[in-house]
Specification:
Blueprint: H1 2-32, H2 39-57, H3 59-85, H4 90-112, E1 128-132, E2 135-138, H5 139-161, H6 163-173, H7 175-180, H8 185-208, H9 217-232, H10 237-256, H11 261-265, H12 267-270, H13 277-282, H14 286-289, H15 293-304
Antiparallel strand pairs: 1-2
Helix pairs in contact: 1-5, 1-8, 1-9, 1-10, 2-3, 2-4, 2-8, 2-9, 3-8, 5-6, 9-10, 9-15
């Protein structure tokens, strides 16, 4: 029971971090149809800017500055890059963001080096929030949950209860009509892309000190984020949230479960033996194949439901 409850908490925290990063990617795709491969790179930039800002003016100022800088970078990318490649189709957009990711990664390595930086949890949040079975739950993780929950509420309210949100949704399906009503559709798309990068930068500020701020952080988390977006459903914020929690729970529980198919089924597979390939595969513990499970889930989802759990657009 102790392991289950602690793993549930840790899985929920990790899932909410995934949601913070995946929500911006979902927002961009649902409004613009662009799969932004550079999104994890923007997340990394947010973490490094937060690190520099927190050293100079403190964490709370970094919480505002880093996402705004990432939003400005995103606006520049959309205006000077994606807007020019849009006329050549989605493949050109995908290749553009794919190349941009490697430029960002190499740029970070040139500026900050190859080693992790000392981006720490702020002192004001560096204390145990409560204790469970003798294990302390850090207050910073509670702060992460608060920020992620606030982000979910803010996005939902903006898209469903504000004028700009209605314009954004209308521009997705009827851009010519929105343009005829006097709205600047390219500017709307710039706002959407910058908003998605703002969310990625905010995730970088929050997640950079929860995990490790290093040049490989984008490459490590980026593929998982795409799994979340595809599994939850391209274009669905609710699906993104559900998939984030599922993936977070699976990856967390897989680490602590040391059982295998052979040990679970016991006598059922004992006749197979362990001196052959099938027996060796069945004897592999779940903790070793845990990192593969989200990708297996994505493949199965694409086979039987290409739109994902709650998707509104085809993959």
């Amino acid at each position: 029971m102790e392991i289950i409850l602690i793993s549930l908490l840790n899985g929920f925290v990790y899932g909410m971090l995934l949601f913070m990063l995946a929500s911006g990617l979902t927002l961009i795709f649902s409004m613009m149809g662009v799969l932004n491969f550079a999104h994890a790179g923007i997340y990394m930039i947010g973490a490094y800017i937060a690190y520099e800002s927190s050293r100079l003016i403190g964490f709370w100022a970094a919480l505002i500055i880093a996402p705004l800088v990432c939003a400005a970078i995103g606006a520049a990318i959309e205006i000077y890059g994606l807007r020019r490649t849009h006329h050549n189709g989605h493949i050109a957009e995908l290749l553009f963001t794919f190349g941009l990711f490697f430029i960002i990664e190499r740029g970070v390595q040139m500026v900050w080096g190859m080693l992790p930086v000392a981006y720490r949890v702020p002192m004001a949040l560096d204390f145990p929030l409560f204790s469970l079975y003798g294990i302390n739950f850090p207050a910073y993780r509670g702060f992460m949950l608060l920020v992620a929950g606030g982000m979910l509420l803010a996005i939902w309210l903006m898209l469903t209860r504000t004028r700009i949100g209605l314009i954004i949704q209308a521009a997705l399906t009827h851009p010519n009509m929105v343009s005829s009503l006097g709205h600047n559709v390219p500017r709307v798309f710039t706002i959407v892309f910058a908003g998605g990068c703002f969310l990625a930068g905010l995730a970088g500020v929050i997640g950079g000190n929860y995990q490790v701020t290093e040049p490989a952080m984008a490459a490590a988390l980026g593929p998982i984020v795409f799994v979340v977006v595809v599994f939850g459903g391209l274009g669905s914020l609710t699906g993104c949230f559900v998939a984030s929690i599922i993936v977070g729970m699976i990856q967390t529980f897989a680490v602590v479960v040391d059982a295998s198919v052979a040990s679970t089924l016991g006598d059922v597979v004992s006749w197979i033996g362990t001196d052959n390939l099938l027996g060796e595969i069945l004897a592999i513990p779940l903790s070793r194949v845990g990192p593969l499970l989200p990708y297996a889930m994505m493949v199965i989802m694409l086979l039987f439901r290409p739109r994902g759990l709650l998707g509104t657009r085809d993959t």
